[in-house]
Amino acid sequence: MATICLHTLWNLRSDFIGGTERFLIDLCKELNVLGHQSFIVCSNLNPHTKIEGVSVLGRVPPSHQDRLIKYGDDFASFARDHIYPARACVAAYKEVSSYVKDQLRDLEFDILHLNSFSSAAFIASKNCVVTNHENEEELDTFWHSGAFGILKAMIRSDKNIFPPHNILCTPSFHYAQEYSLDMQRNIQATPLGIDLHRLQPSLRPRQYDRFNVLVPSRFFPAQKGQDVALEACRVLVEKGIKNITFTFTGVRFNYSSYVEEFLRRANDSGVRRQIEIKTFRDMQEAYDLADVVVSPERYCSYGLSVSEGLAHFKPTVLTAIPTYIEIAQNYRHAFFFRVDHAIELADRIVDAIALDRRIAVSEGIVFRENNDIRDCARNYSRIYRSHFL
Questions:
Q1: In sequence order, what are the residues at sequence separation of 6 or more whose Cβ sits closer than 8 angstroms to the Cβ of residue 266?
Q2: pLDDT digit string (tens) for 54-79?
Q3: Phi first, then psi: what are they for 213, rounded to 5°?
């Protein structure tokens, strides 16, 4: 048995759980089932909470607590202003690491499991696993253009940024290969999975008078592509398919400017009646109501919503980006379209609606067999044991 500290630099809320945070919660639960003692450290102001039975320690360094309070729930802006300096460089990444070190100070654990390269650099823990959940586009969009490239160059030139005993991982085989070449380090692909008990598949009685298209990603059009889904909706309505509703989720309070602009565009496009924006506390409800799931993301390190849609037996339409191809290419209830091609997306939605539901069910069962978070937890447990225990 080992005590495992799973770390994220970000905050973790029970009412809004993103992809990486969902992975941490599900992994923590399964590691505990295997006999380990696991907990999560994050940037919550609340020092100790339970989320789905998992111990979550809020560890904001005293020097930052008053600053964070002023930002309310807008942790991203707080991180940009007070954790990540203006420009990426060796000193900047060391400044990020000093925040993480302060979070971990005085905690006792056998193994530290960090969850991004940018927050894990210069953390010289003896028993350390780093799973990177952010790709180049994601970090550059959050911080500034070139930030991830600078980090890759640093890792390539200085082997002590991640000491040789650190185990480096990423969920995607595509990115594992790319990072291994770019950073000249061995980076393992550790595919993730979903909690099959949390996500129960459902078959909504087909209602031919109305179809529901679910777009379940965080509401951030620049990355998640909700603007492409909106344009696809316009294309479908122009073709005479007006009995359709696009339901968008993932809205936080600080996304109001995105939502206002999005609804203005929907109104200008003549499809406001076909658009619904709704926050679900339990995504099971959202998937239960869906006929088709759509993920029009421009880039993604893994793709939780894609996995959830396929596991719910829903025909799922997704962009042909490397991580999505890895996840879904072998399943007949997955339909691909090119990034930013709204007309293709509209056509694939029509194909998905027409799919024989028996195919979606049989393929969904196979998908669930192959994408169980318990397999992911066993894989990490083996990594911990073989290297550190």
A1: 230, 233, 272, 274, 275
A2: 999 999 999 999 999 999 878 989 99
A3: -105, 120
179-189 pLDDT, tens digit each? 999 999 999 99
Please determine, for residue 387, whether its predicted confidence score (pLDDT) is greater than 80: yes
Cβ atoms 201, 311 nearer than 8 A? yes
Based on the domain organization, do 172 and 302 belong to the same domain? Answer: no
Given a cut of 90, whether residue 258 has pLDDT beyond it is: no
Residue listed under structure tokens 């609804």: 263
In a shared domain, residues 335 and 379: no
| E strands, the chain, in order | 3-7, 37-42, 48-51, 54-58, 111-114, 128-131, 167-170, 187-189, 211-215, 244-248, 275-277, 292-295, 316-319, 334-337
Asked if residue 186 and residue 215 are part of one domain, the reply reads: no
Based on the number of CB atoms within 10 Å of its own CB, is 183 exposed (0-12), middle (13-18) or buried (19 or more)?
A: buried
| Pairing of β 48-51 and β 54-58 | antiparallel
User: Which CATH number goes with the domain that contains 351?
Assistant: 3.40.50.2000
pLDDT in tens, 349-359: 999 999 999 99
Alpha-carbon span 329 to 262, nearest angstrom: 31
Q: Could you tell me the residue range of the domain that residue 321 belongs to?
A: 211-370
Count CB atoms within 10 A of the CB of residue 158: 12
Residue type at 230 in one-letter notation:
L
Residue whose entry in the numeric block shows the structure tokens 């968008």: 248
Q: What is the mean pLDDT of residues 219-238?
A: 95
- Is residue 364 one of the residues assigned to a domain? yes
Handedness of CA 236, 238, 243, 246 (dihedral sign): positive
Residues facing residue 113 across a β-bridge: 6, 129
Check whether 205 has a pLDDT greater than 90.
Answer: no
